[in-house]
Amino acid sequence: MEIEFAAAEGWLHNVWLLIAVPLVSAAILLLLGKRADKWGHWLGAGSVGVTFVLALTFFFQLRGMDEREGVELSLFEYLPVAGLKVDFGLLYDPLAAIFTLLITGVGFLIHVYAVGYMSHDPGRRRFFGFFNLFVAAMLLLVLGNNFVMLYIGWEGVGLASYLLISFYFDRPAAATAGKKAFLINRVGDAGFAIAIFLMFATLGTTQYDEVFNGVGQLTGATVTAMGLLLLLGACGKSGQFPLHTWLPDAMEGPTPVSALIHAATMVTAGVYLIARSHPVFDASETAQAVVVTIGAITLLIGCIIGCAKDDIKRVLAYSTVSQIGYMFLAVGLGGAAYALGLIHLLAHGFFKAGLFLGAGSVMHGMQDQTDIRRFGGLAKHMRITWITFLLGYLAIIGLPPLSGFFSKDPIIHSAFERHGWSGWVLGSVALIGAGLTAFYMTRLYVLTFHGKPRWTEGQHPHESPPVMTIPLILLAVGSVAAGGLMATSVPGWLEPVLGEHEEHHARLSEWTVTAMTMAVVILGAGLGFALFRRGTALQEQPAGPLVTAARRNLYFDTLNEVVFELPGKLLTRALVFLDNRGIDGVVNGLAATVGGGSGRLRRAQTGFVRSYALSILGGAVLVVAAMMAVTLS
Amino acid sequence: MTTDIAAETLKLPSLDYAALAPMLILFGVGCVGVLVEAIAPKKARFPVQLVLAVLGIAASLTAIVLAAGTEKVTAAGAVAVDGPGLFLQGSIAVLGLVALLLISERSLERGGAFVAQAAVTANSEADRDQATRGSGATEVYPLIIFSLGGMMLFAAANDLLTMFVALEVFSLPLYLLCAMARRRRLLSQEAALKYFLLGAFASAFFLFGIALVYGYAGRVDFAGIHAAVLDSPNDIALLYIGLAMVAIGLLFKAALAPFHVWTPDVYQGAPTPVTALMAACTKVAAFGGLLRVLYVAFERSQWDYRPVLGAIAVLTMLVGAVLAVTQTDIKRLLAYSSIANAGYVLVGVLAISKAGLASSLFYLVAYGFSVLAAFGIVTLVRDADGEATHLSRWAGLGRRSPLYATLFTFLLLAFAGIPLTSGFTAKFGVFAAAIEADQTWLVIAGVITSAIIAFPYLRVVVMMWLSEPGESTPAVSLPGALTAAAVTIGAAATLLLGIVPQPLLDMTENAAHFVR
Amino acid sequence: MNGLVTLAAAAGEVKGGEAATFYLLAPIAVICAIGMVWARNAVHSALFLVVTMLCLGVFYVLQAGPFIGMVQIIVYTGAIMMLFLFVLMLVGRDASDSLIETLRGQRMTAVLLGLGFAGLVATGLYRALGNLDSVGLTQANSVHGGNVPGIAALLFTKYVFAFEVTSALLITAAVGAMILAHIEKRPDQKIAQPERMRARFAPDNYPGPKPGPGVFANSTSVATPAVLPDGTQSERSMSKILPQRELTAAEAAPKGTEHQ
Questions:
Q1: How many CB atoms lie within 10 A of CB C74?
Q2: Cβ proximity of B92 and B284 under 8 Å
Q3: Which residues of C touch B241 (CB under 8 A)?
Q4: Closest CA of chain C from B350, distance in Å
Q5: What residue stretches are annotated with the NADH-Ubiquinone oxidoreductase (complex I) chain 5 N-terminal domain (chain A) (predicted)?
Q6: Contacts of residue A627 in chain B, CB cutoff 8 Å?
Q7: CA–CA distance, A584 with A579 (Å, rounded to integer)
Q8: Burial A112-150 (b: 16+ CB within 10 A, else e)
Q9: Strand spans (E) along A163-308
Q10: Looking at chain A from residue 606 to 625, which residues have their Cβ under 8 Å from any Cβ of chain C?
Q11: B32 interfacial to chain C (CB closer than 8 Å)
Q12: pLDDT tens digits along A475-508
């Protein structure tokens, strides 16, 4: 299949505005300094709103076209070194279009929300500057027409995310989290960069069309290497095993950041990368197998650790890790499942953003408390937050007809359909994941909004102002409706990009899978509800008149603990331990090695000229000896 | 036969004055500058010297442009005029001109960055007296002009002896300039002494190497050595030991590990404008010499020296990147950064191909502009005691002066090789050339060290933007027109070469052919 | 044809007087070179270096390179080393200069690396030159009619550009010496001759030369202040850097020079 893009014409010629508007706004906010403090946040939110409107017009323009393969807009030639060249250009195709809508649409709502959320923060203008910078970089990432542009955007969102995570730089935890995110992302980025170099080396280009058309000429090993390197990059950015540890720590940033960057958009860039380079992955069986394996492992790890966390944002963060695992699983399966992964990505963008913003609203009303053991009974006090959170929660566990049902079930189904025994394994993993998701999300929801209040003293929970609740409502509407709408329209819309695929389900019928999933979900949710209806065992409760009932409950708890929880807990502990000591340790260890090595080497720089002369002499001996060795060999 | 008969037979070799003009002009202007010191009244010296120096460099640049396209060996084979030579000379002239702007700045500090009388004992009564009122020594101008002339000759020298003389001609003024800081004079003098002693040590290796190469080839001109590599009857060990020692001298000047040890101390101690000159122009000249030696004289030995120099490149990148992590002084940080960057240039050099040559030339120019602008900003961040170079003092600079913090951030990103800066284009070029030449291991090391060295850069960025300005955060002085011009030129070039590098890439591509 | 050629002819094969001279001077040169590094006193070091350079000069002459030999002796031994000695003596460093090495392992490493480097180069040179027949300068010297004309020819033809550029080096060196050593006095710091005279004959100033140490004292030691005619000791007679010390009994004992 030859891929070719038409040149942009008419209104689509102005696609570059999408990037320029938020970029200019960011520049104004960051350069004007204090002068922009009064109105800066409205400029920041407004610019994204304008971008969203622009994105809509472009979207309808593209929809009206007959040939929807996508249009290219060449800006200028960049870097023609020794026969290699990169055209600095934009590509607006159906895939880019839906990402653009997601980024600007959800981004706009979160910007509006942040106006309220950050209202007491002295650094609000700076925050919006970074936020706009992020939007611009993210749009560059999805709109570029070659891998180098993608990389530029990739680094740009990384920078913005790094700046935003350490936004509260006076908190050591935030600064550390920022550094950690940065370091781990460099590992992934290095992989991505090498992949790009590999493209240059083998194909001499990084333009999407030329690379994809050229994949056929490459050897299998090269394509696999390229795919795996791209995957490494994707894993770093999307918080996938084994590079997932930075994502939960990144929750140290302000909540709107968690919602936009670490739930809805940036972390899904890895999925975008894989979907965008699908011809590479289609051409390598091995690379696809690794993608699904990583997706499956991650979704399981995310669920299990999510069950053990008590911090509302961290539970949501692990949930994000796990949901992106689903998306990786889907895009790794290939074929028709690409579209499923992207649908889940979009749906997840809505409900997870909604959940995060809901969590932010709860924190806003509870004086920045994040411990779910200290919540409880909030449903009465923050009605809107409660309802919207409930809808998001129902969406994520996949209750029909909310969006999670339409996006997750088909993924589980597709996983079962993978050829050979791996289909059974992957399907089961995805199924168990659905149950666990239902369990921990129920726990989170119940502990936060129901049961008796377990607040610390002096809490007066209150509903957030309309500027925060309106985005919540809109996102909740999205969580409810988006899944059904997209499940029917998106696969057809993306066909020009991903190609046509026949669905053939041999093993299990759709209804069987749905029934199984529903059973598991209800089991998980019911278990969670039963266990945490009355609060949590970690919270001391005064002995009421119904002591016997409580005791029986306790007995039930213990039984549960022995039968269900203990193995899970042990596994969770082991995983958390592995997470902290093993993977974290390796990353931190690397950083410490560089720092330590630097400190030790630094001591060699004594400042004495005779010691310098000695090291020069040492170098001279080595160089002469090496040259002699060359001679004698 | 007697001596007078011989004298009759001596004929001056043909000197192509047009091709030699760039250097001759500078040497001439340098001599005039010395005379100005002797004749002109004290008050008039600064403007006269400044105008003279600027005109001299401009005239030299004009001569270079006029000579463009020439390909010949002149002065009895001592000087090669060819694409790379003229390109390097042009780069030295342009970068030197920008550095001269920094050097001539006198509004940041009364009397400029240079001490009035370097002979006055540091920290004595007289010294404190002259620090407050003396205007800086104007001898720096002829010294800089001589140094630039020497660098141009170094990049064009076509035999090892001329190269050695050029090496000394451009080094000696630098040793002197290092000792002439107005503030922290003891540190400055220490730096100069270290540079001088170690420079002499390295020169000794270079000279010894010349002797050994002569022992092998019987000649010291590059074409002769090139021919002798194939057909000399002598033992090849002579050639290799000689090459190793010649290389040591060159590696020292280019600040490659393990011959880099002087760099941080000297960069830190020298007056910042001189540091800028060294980081930009000396690097161009040193790599110019290295390129010519490796590409013209020893091209046929490339399979033998490549692994050795490759190991040095890897070591250099590692040392520069790893040591930059723990630096606490901005000048030292930039010094280690320049070491690491020298490693990247060497990666390009070791491609031993046209692409390698072109990409190294591009890298040198791109880095030169960025580093000039970076040191230019360092001269602006100051308090009552002069420049505030400790990193902790830079905390919160973004609040105090967003413009300069933004510029500096941009330059650091360029050093880190972020796309849309010249740093990316340049790194990309050298890595691409190295991969083409099957030197993938160098590129892998380059990518890894790039990742490491991005950390200290970003630490500075984070410190400038995300820390609250403390009591000790110094103000940024309003730059005089000269520094402003230098910083603007440097930053603009960094941006332009990142976005539209094509014209310069074409230029390097066209220039990348050595004459033998 | 003159003595030069005679010398040149000897270069073909090492024998007779040449061999004797070489084997006599070579050990001296090496020993003095080692002595230069080893000596604790800077003046001794310089003198050792002088001997080594003299030996080298003789070797050059022996090798039919009279010009370089003479230049070696005149310029290096005669001018540079003597200047060096003058400076050393003016600065007045004495043997008490601290030679304690403070860097751990510095000396040992330096010795090892130095030996290693020497070993490497020597091995290489031995391999390369072990069985090489020396040709001598006969042929080279005959092209331009002698050693000196030959060098002149090279300097003014092949290396004329490098030779001319050396002038930049020399100018730089001179300017550098001025910068680092010369202090220009401001006009208000300059003292005119009349002021100087007035100050000299001002009250409370002794216009004559200061008495030397030991004058009229009961010891001739430089550490003994002079005794003025009125019997008081003059502090001015002693150099400020010398510590004034108590005389021992033997030194203070009458030496038969006092006024009876």
A1: 12
A2: yes
A3: 120-121, 124-125
A4: 25
A5: 79-128
A6: 240-241, 243-244, 304-305, 308
A7: 6
A8: bbbbbbbeeeebbbbbbbbbbbbbbbbbbbbbbbbbbbb
A9: none
A10: 606, 608, 610-611, 614, 617-618, 620-621, 624-625
A11: no
A12: 888 888 777 777 777 777 777 777 776 666 666 7
d(CA A594, CA C73): 54
* Separation between Cα atoms, residue A119 and residue A132, nearest integer Å: 17
Question: Domain residue spans in chain C?
Answer: 1-92, 145-184
B448:A190 CB<8 A: yes
Mean pLDDT of B274-302: 93
Amino acid at C38: W
The answer to whether the pTM exceeds 0.80 is no
pLDDT digits (tens, 9 = 90+) for A200-251: 888 878 888 888 888 888 888 888 888 888 888 888 888 887 777 778 777 8
In CATH, what number does C1-92 get? Answer: 1.20.120.1200
Identify whether the C-beta of residue B178 lies closer than 8 Å to the C-beta of residue B269: yes
The nearest alpha carbon in chain A to B354 belongs to A82
Beta strands in B372-473 (DSSP E): 382-383, 386-387
Neighbours of chain C (3+ CB pairs under 8 A): A, B
A561 secondary structure, DSSP code: I
Partner residue facing C124 (CB), from B15, B79, B241? B241
Could you tell me if A514 and A410 are in contact, meaning their C-beta atoms sit under 8 angstroms apart?
Answer: no
Give the pLDDT of residue B516: 80
How many residues are given for chain B?
516
Domain boundaries, chain B: 10-511
Q: Which residue from C minimizes the CA distance to A621?
A: C117
- Please write the tens of the pLDDT for every residue from A317-356: 888 888 888 888 888 887 778 888 888 888 888 888 888 8
Helix boundaries (H) for A499-509: none
DSSP B160-207: HHHHHHHHHHHHHHHHHHHTTBSSSHHHHHHHHHHHHHHHHHHHHHHH
Our CA-based measurement puts residue B169 at a distance from the nearest CA of chain C, in whole angstroms, of: 5
Distance from the A24 Cα atom to the nearest Cα atom in chain B, whole angstroms:
15
Sequence-distant (≥ 6) Cβ neighbours of residue A217 within 8 angstroms: none
Phi, psi of B335 (to 5 degrees): -65, -45
The 10s digit of each residue's pLDDT in A55-99 is: 888 888 888 777 767 777 777 766 555 555 667 788 888 888 888
